[in-house]
From TrEMBL:
Gene Ontology molecular function, alphabetical: peptidyl-prolyl cis-trans isomerase activity; protein tyrosine phosphatase activator activity
Region annotation Disordered: where it falls in the sequence: 1-24, 84-105, 126-149, 210-248, 360-380, 495-596
Compartments it resides in: Cytoplasm; Nucleus
UniProt biased composition (Acidic residues): 221-236
Protein name: Serine/threonine-protein phosphatase 2A activator
Signal peptide interval: none
EC number(s) recorded for this UniProt protein: 5.2.1.8
Record-stated family: Belongs to the PTPA-type PPIase family.
Record's compositionally biased regions (Low complexity): 508-522
Physiological role: PPIases accelerate the folding of proteins. It catalyzes the cis-trans isomerization of proline imidic peptide bonds in oligopeptides. Acts as a regulatory subunit for PP2A-like phosphatases modulating their activity or substrate specificity, probably by inducing a conformational change in the catalytic subunit, a direct target of the PPIase. Can reactivate inactive phosphatase PP2A-phosphatase methylesterase complexes (PP2Ai) in presence of ATP and Mg(2+) by dissociating the inactive form from the complex.
The species this protein was found in: Neurospora tetraspora
Major site of localization recorded for this protein: cytoplasm
Main EC class the enzyme belongs to: isomerase
Catalysed reactions listed for this entry: [protein]-peptidylproline (omega=180) = [protein]-peptidylproline (omega=0)
């Protein structure tokens, strides 16, 4: 048994009651006024928009949905009934021998016999632990034991995967993604309406008549078109009003289609990343909101959520992995070797939840440490034999197995972050907690990842009235700022109040590391900046300013012994380490994250 596993309280003790955990809201089609579906639109156009996103209703719903699915995969403690059986079980041979055993002749033998019986009674199992591995038929197609809604989504993914055979990869050599992926994506895009109408769960189709009618939408579009023709505005003013445009009213399938198509990569950039993965997760969240899964309203123990993850999310990841291998899709928004994974994040969250410490109540919070008994060690992800053994039953090991399929060399070399995580000693619960925090920081709080996420009526851009002020982390302080002529930026931390102008007065988006240096004293307009001197090359002359001390001095044979030039003090033999994060530490030796 895992040493960090904490046993549940005895059967006789009073169980602890927990408040219900938050769940994603399920909309009611009979409420008035009816729900109006909107065409999802891009709202995150520059860095400060990420701060607004972190206080929006969409961010709240994303977090609730991910945590809801994560909690459903935590193992459960199932208590067995203590009622006496209706029919007495047949005695075993050992029990028969004990029945025929002669009574003890002395008090010591009688006491030993009594202790043996008590020991046998304590060893009888009063509870069992239920885990939720991947279904055994994961490679064998559809699972007929799943509900109709899950089976329909599995058929939808099979249709999507079958399109790969219609768009074979281009055989020509190339450095980046295969251009045939654009052909595949066009085929998927052209068939998306029919596929969704055929394979979406039946509960979603009842929303077809919700909102405004087709004639009302057409009249509204004509009115908006007339207003647009009469208005004249500059390009800069149009950029400012991007987030203020009135969204287009559409049907439910049209809104869901934006998240569905966004979950299969970018045909323009030939890449796939965690932002696309997030889009598909919100496609499933939209289905949940519209009541697309049977029994979701009365589901207390997360059975429906487990079926969604194990029956839909894992098959989706298999389709994505085939797309990556077939069309060599580039990582989107990746940190390279210092990222958790080139393309995915979700399987590490749900996979670590499958092995975390079991809970005894459906409303008990997700454990923050510990592992389920007999779970593999986190360090087993570095062992190829262990990965092959567990990749068919756990999503974490399944993702590691795909890394081993596409990358060669030592695991610590091509996946250093995952290698660091494998050294955690507090169990899979600690890993699950860290993965959720890392998902919030590296996916939801990063402009390159969430900039393409669209917002509509299911996931709204409007601010959540109960949201607090987002924590200004290092990630949020280094968000890029889009260009706009003579535009001032307000409300951002670490963002200048006025955007710098480039050559000719044209502003542009600068790289995060391209910061304009402060003007040195004594440097006038049109003069070149002073030369950068080594830290040990200091001028000893009094009253010499930086504008002259840092200038290159021509060679003079006099000044030193034997006519050698006076070049100042010799360089130091070693560079002392200063305070971390300050300029005095710029020459400190850089160590790897795991080198303590």
């Amino acid at each position: 048994m895992d040493p960090t596993f904490k046993p549940p309280p005895p059967v006789g003790s009073s169980p602890t009651t927990f408040p219900p955990l938050p769940k994603l809201e399920i909309l009611n089609p009979s409420t008035l006024p009816p729900h109006r579906f909107l065409r999802p639109a891009k709202r995150i156009n520059e860095g400060p928009d990420v701060s607004h996103f972190l206080t929006s209703k969409a961010y709240r719903d994303i977090c609730v949905w991910i945590l809801q699915l994560n909690h459903a995969l935590v193992p459960r403690i199932i208590k067995k009934s203590t009622a006496a059986p209706t029919t007495a079980p047949k005695p075993t041979d050992e029990q028969k021998a004990e029945a025929n055993e002669e009574p003890p002749k002395d008090a010591l033998a009688a006491k030993l016999q009594l202790l043996r019986k008590k020991r046998d009674e304590q060893l009888l199992p009063r509870e069992e632990i239920k885990t939720f591995p991947l279904p055994s038929s994961r490679e064998g197609g559809l699972d007929n034991q799943e509900p109709e809604s899950i089976q329909k989504l599995q058929r939808l993914l099979k249709k999507v995967e079958a399109i790969i055979d219609e768009a074979p990869p281009d055989p020509g050599p190339r450095r980046f993604g295969n251009v045939s992926f654009r052909t595949w994506y066009k085929l998927l895009e052209s068939r998306a309406d029919g596929l969704l109408r055929e394979y979406l769960p039946g509960g979603v189709l009842r929303w077809e008549g919700a909102g405004t009618t087709k004639e009302e939408r057409q009249n509204k579009e004509e009115e908006e078109g007339t207003e647009t023709e009469t208005e004249t505005e500059t390009e800069g003013e149009s950029d400012k009003k991007t987030n203020e445009q009135k969204p287009e009213v559409v049907g439910p399938l049209e809104e869901l289609k934006a998240y569905f198509l966004g979950g299969f990569g970018s045909a323009q950039r030939l890449d796939y990343g965690t932002g696309h993965e997030l889009s598909f997760m919100m496609f499933l969240g939209g289905l949940w909101k519209l009541g697309g899964f049977e029994g979701e309203e009365n589901d207390e123990d997360g059975e429906v959520e487990r079926r969604i993850v194990l029956g839909v999310v894992e098959p989706y990841l298999r389709v994505i992995r085939r797309l990556i291998l077939t069309y060599t899709l580039e990582p989107a928004g990746s940190h390279g070797v210092w990222g958790l994974d080139d393309h995915s994040f979700i399987p590490y969250i749900f996979g670590s939840a499958q092995y975390t410490r079991p809970i005894s109540s459906p409303n008990e919070p997700t454990p923050l440490e510990g592992s389920v008994p007999n779970a593999p060690k986190p360090s087993d992800i570095t062992k190829a034999t262990a990965v092959e053994r567990y990749r068919t039953e756990n999503m974490y090991f399944s993702a590691i197995g795909f890394i081993n399929d596409v990358k060669k060399g030592p695991f610590w070399e091509h996946s250093p972050i995952l290698f660091d995580v494998s050294g955690i000693k507090d169990g899979w619960g600690k890993i699950n907690k860290g993965m959720i925090k890392m998902f919030n920081a590296e996916v939801l709080s990063k402009f390159p990842v969430v900039q393409h996420f669209p917002f509509g009526s299911l996931f709204q851009w409007e601010k959540d009235p109960e949201a607090g002020v987002p924590v200004q982390s290092v990630h949020m302080q280094n968000q890029p700022v889009a260009s706009a002529a003579s535009a001032a930026v307000t409300g951002g931390v670490g963002i200048p109040t006025e955007r710098p102008s480039g050559p000719g007065g044209v502003t542009g988006t600068a790289a995060p590391w391209a910061q304009a240096p402060a003007q040195a004293p004594g440097a006038g307009a049109g003069m070149p900046p002073p030369m950068t001197a080594a830290p040990w090359a200091r001028s000893s002359g009094a009253g010499v300013g930086p504008s002259t001390a840092n200038r290159f001095t021509p060679f003079k044979p006099s000044g030193g012994p034997g006519g050698a030039p006076n070049t100042g003090p010799p360089p130091p033999e070693s560079f002392p380490s200063g305070t971390p994060g300050t300029a005095s530490n710029q020459f400190a030796v850089t160590k790897a994250p795991w080198a303590k």
